[in-house]
Fold this sequence. Notes:
Layout: H1 8-20, E1 23-26, E2 29-32, E3 38-40, H2 44-50, H3 66-71, E4 86-90, H4 101-110, E5 115-118, H5 133-148, E6 154-162, H6 173-177, E7 181-185, H7 194-206, E8 212-213, H8 231-241, E9 244-248, H9 258-266, E10 271-274, H10 286-295, H11 309-315, H12 317-320
Parallel strand pairs: 4-5, 5-6, 6-7, 7-8, 8-9, 9-10
Antiparallel strand pairs: 1-2, 2-3
Helix pairs in contact: 7-8, 9-10
Amino acid sequence: MQYFTGSKAHNIALRDRAIGRGFKLNEYGLFRIGEEARVAGDREEEIYEALGLDWIPPELREMRGEIDAAEAHALPRLIEVADLRGDLHLHTTETDGKEDIRTMAEAARAAGLEYIAITDHSQALAMANGLDERRTVEHAARVRAIDAERIGIRLLAGIECDIRPDGSLDLSDDCLAALDLVIVSVHSAFNQDRQQMTDRLLRAIEHPYVDIVGHPTGRKILRRPAYSVDIDAVVDAAARSGVALEINCQVDRLDLNDVHAKLARDRRVPLVISTDAHSRTSFGRLRWGVLVGRRAWLEPSDVLNTQRFEAFRASLRRNRRGAA
């Protein structure tokens, strides 16, 4: 399991480490050079222990500093699905989802979540029956009415607001200010050049009522590559503004990817892991986003929706900045 798990670079480094300590490491185990008796190999942990290392979780075996961290007993306590308390990106029949608000809330509660945000599309996404300002406010009122019933899960009234090609947002400031949470996403003009797309995202991040950037690079695996964007600039802007970046759990997105999510973590950008659910059966997707997070070295404290409801709400950019 150890030999065939992880990157080639990780395994080469381990074999070199073994040689430096008078061992040889292969798929059969760890052996002292010149001897046939196996020193370790019944369990993975034995291999790492014999080489003076803490056990390295498979997701970290990418030669990105994990061996030094294992030697220094400084590996992270990686996030697990059970650490997530909320899901912040959900759609309903008000736009292109398959279930109504209550059904989604009940399914999320059955999945063990403590809170959700209903974030239907804004008006620019006409094919999804996106919401204008009037419908957004009315929809938010329905979400809050169900939340007031205290049905065993808390609900936030949000929106997934389109970022227009010029970086402006698809709904008025007054409308966005009246919500509990705002995700902004790109759903059009993917062919903009790198500077245009970067400027577009930076302008959106600077907006005072933006809390989260959804699927920040726009990729769809095997269908559409990520759009051209300066991800370093986007991460730095999110760090300055206190805007969270999403790891989207849709299996054809997984966006942010692990490399970009680790970059965000290292620069102290808050992250969220959300399903982008369109039906009550979608909450099992959380495991895929968590796997991306684990590859990115994320601990529970790096992910906003591991927090209890009130702490999570207080951590949103709009509430920390006093925007609302």
